[in-house]
Amino acid sequence: MVAPSTESLRDAHGRAISDLRVSVTDRCNFRCQYCMPAEGLPWLERAEILSFEEIERLVSVFVGLGIEDVRLTGGEPLVRRDFPALVARLAAIEGIADLSVTTNGYLLERDAEALVAAGIDRVNVSIDSLARDRFFEITRRDALPQVLRGLEAIAAHESVRPIKVNAVAMRDFTEREVSAFAELARTSDYQVRFIEFMPLDADRAWSQGAVLTGAEVRALIEREHPLREREREPSATARVFDFADGRGQIGFINPVSEPFCADCNRLRLTAEGKLRTCLFSVHETDLREPLRDGAGDDEIAAVIRDAVWRKELKHHVGEPGFRPPPRSMSAIGG
Ligand code: SAM
Ligand code: SF4
Predict the structure, then answer these.
(1) Is residue 9 in some structural domain?
(2) Would you state the pLDDT for residue 76?
(3) Which pLDDT band holds residue 47 (cuts at 50, 70, 90)?
(4) pLDDT > 60? residue 289
(5) Model pTM score
């Protein structure tokens, strides 16, 4: 059966697809242990990376197919030169309901104002430790104060809400951070969320045992603060809980212990223009070649529809024989 060509994007399992993550670079100024090796990775050549014009064109085609939420990521998106200019181009595309960026925050103090002026709707900042030495240990950069200044700089703009602070949870590391993150969630309006460690690290050090599950983190929090679960929004990746005393909320993204594949509405576009229909895809669809060969919007849309139709039913992390994809998280666009 081939992909139907009239309605909005849907896969063969009946899932409606409305969310696109666009990686704007594979480069990064951090070397987080769960993502990149200390020495970095072989970077893409400049000519391989989609230009701003090409990203804008592809995003317009996706939006024409029903994509409503566009998140810019990487690598570290803010290391891409003139990144706010790309945000401005995308913000001008009619039909995007939510334009957001995920960043490690290092350059956010510099760019917050320009991003807001360009029309960013929301910002997620990744912070794995609130202690300077432990932040250095995990990211291999002594950058916590700079990141916290970036977070404050973006939070000063009240139009950019909610601001999410995401921490990857790893066994024998994150347990000692849980209290401090709970405090942050209770004393600020940031939405703090823990993400389970996935087998997408370039060093291939992931093991099931290294995953500190969302349930375990929640149990640690509940020792001090009872939580009440909120009703889950359709296609939401996070389970969100309110602190029972009404002060703040906290979220858990549990792709390993509680896969949410059945509700997945996401696609990913890598920095060199490969469409990935699952974080763990082993097959990709090249959109750069048709784009550079002069294909029309309809032709590109047809290639996208076909790829989406074949979107994987589920990932197989933790199952016997599971093989991680050849690309690590920074080269996919998390
Ligand atoms: N550099 C930006 C940042 O760190 O926010 C954007 C790209 S980064 C790949 C996107 C998100 O993926 C970050 O929140 C990061 O913590 C998360 N991530 C990276 N590797 C991961 C892994 N192996 N398991 C779970 N999350 C991971
Ligand atoms: Fe860079 Fe983000 Fe990967 Fe850390 S998680 S190395 S900040 S791309």
Answers:
(1) no
(2) 98
(3) very high
(4) yes
(5) 0.96
Give the number of the ligand closest to the Cα of residue 202: 1
Residue nearest to atom 4 of ligand 2 (CA): 32
290-301 pLDDT, tens per residue? 999 999 999 999
Is 172 a domain residue? Answer: yes
Q: What does the pLDDT look like over 49-92, one tens digit per residue?
A: 999 999 999 999 999 999 999 999 999 999 999 999 999 999 99
Ligand nearest to the CA of 203: 1
The rounded Å distance from CA 327 to ligand 1 centre is: 13
If one counts the domains in the chain, the total is 1
Domain span including residue 82: 19-332
Q: Describe the strand order of the beta sheet including 164-169 as a list of residue ranges.
A: 227-229, 238-243, 249-253, 191-196, 164-169, 122-126, 98-103, 69-73, 19-23, 266-269, 274-276, 285-286
In a domain, 14, yes or no: no
Residue at 10 is within a domain: no
8, 16 contact by CB (below 8 A): yes
Q: Closest ligand to 210 CA?
A: 1
Of all residues in the chain, the percent with pLDDT exceeding 70 is: 98
With beta carbons less than 8 A apart as the criterion, state whether 170 and 217 touch.
no
Q: Point out the ligand 1 atom lying closest to the alpha carbon of residue 124.
A: 5
**Token output for 165:** 């602070």
Residue 153 is part of a domain; what is its CATH number?
Answer: 3.20.20.70
CA of 105 to the centre of ligand 2 (A): 10
Rounded distance from Cα 26 to ligand 2 centre (Å): 10
Ligand 1 neighbour 237 (Cβ under 6 A): no
Angle 233-166-39 from CA coordinates, rounded to 5°: 135
Q: Is the C-beta atom of 104 inside 6 A of ligand 2?
A: yes
**Mutate which of 28, 29, 32 to test ligand 1's pocket (most atoms within 8 Å of Cβ)?**
32
Each residue's pLDDT tens digit, 160-182: 999 999 999 999 999 999 999 99
pLDDT of residue 320: 83
